[in-house]
Amino acid sequence: MQVNARKPVVVGVSGASGSLLASTTVDRLLEADVPVVMTATAAARMVWREEMNESFGAVLERWMDYGTFTYCPIGDLSAPIASGTYPTRGMVVVPCSMATAAAVGHGFADNLLRRAADVTLKERRPMVVVPRETPLNTVHLENLTKLASMGVTVLPPNPAFYLNQKSVTDVIDFAVARTLVALNIYDALPDDMVYSEPVD
Q: Which pLDDT tens digit goes with each residue over 45-91?
């Protein structure tokens, strides 16, 4: 395996709705033997409790069994991902709340997720945010535009209607696949899914 393939992906989970997006993203990466370093805000854990059947503690234990998963508490600013000297393949914030988008876009690095995002940007590594908010007001749009102008891929988990998706699981799987492609990770993709959009 190439050296780059052994670098971890940083997964930041913020307090927006969409815990299943985060869970599936981590699952796909670990199943493909891509190391993951994860951090989650207090609000993310609250949302997780409301949306998921598997508790946050239980899923952390399950992921630890892979041997390629690391969890860092949100307040641990001494964690490796808080430093640019720690090599990673990039970062995804999934789901990304509008508060987190605003903070990252304006350089507020007051918790580990935001600091890791700041590091990813300054080191010019691939970064994806998966925003979960609708409708978007002008402030939201301005903050997401600012992130896009900094090289961040803004990837709303929109359904692929042209694939005739039948379930929430189909939508989630497609959004996660697009996220991995945006991070230049292809070894975690299933073989039986179409990722390209139709050409006009």
A: 999 999 999 999 999 999 999 999 999 999 999 999 999 999 999 99
CB 26 within 8 A of CB 15: no
Q: Which of these, 26, 63, 31, 22, lies nearest to 188 by C-alpha position?
A: 31
Alpha helices, DSSP H, located in 9-150:
19-31, 42-51, 56-64, 98-105, 112-122, 138-149
Predicted pLDDT of residue 192:
60
CA distances from 131 to 17, 53, 155 (A): 9, 22, 7
Amino acid occupying residue 39? T
* CA gap 81, 137 in Å, rounded: 32
Banded pLDDT at 198 (limits 50, 70, 90)? very low
Sign for the pseudo-dihedral over CA of 25, 38, 69, 87: positive
CA 13 – CA 112 distance, rounded (Å): 11
Domain boundaries in the chain? 3-156
The CATH class, in words, for 3-156 is: alpha beta
172 and 164 Cβ atoms separated by less than 8 Å = no
**Separation CA 38–CA 36 (nearest Å):** 6
Read off the pLDDT of each residue in 124-146 and give the average, rounded to a whole number: 97
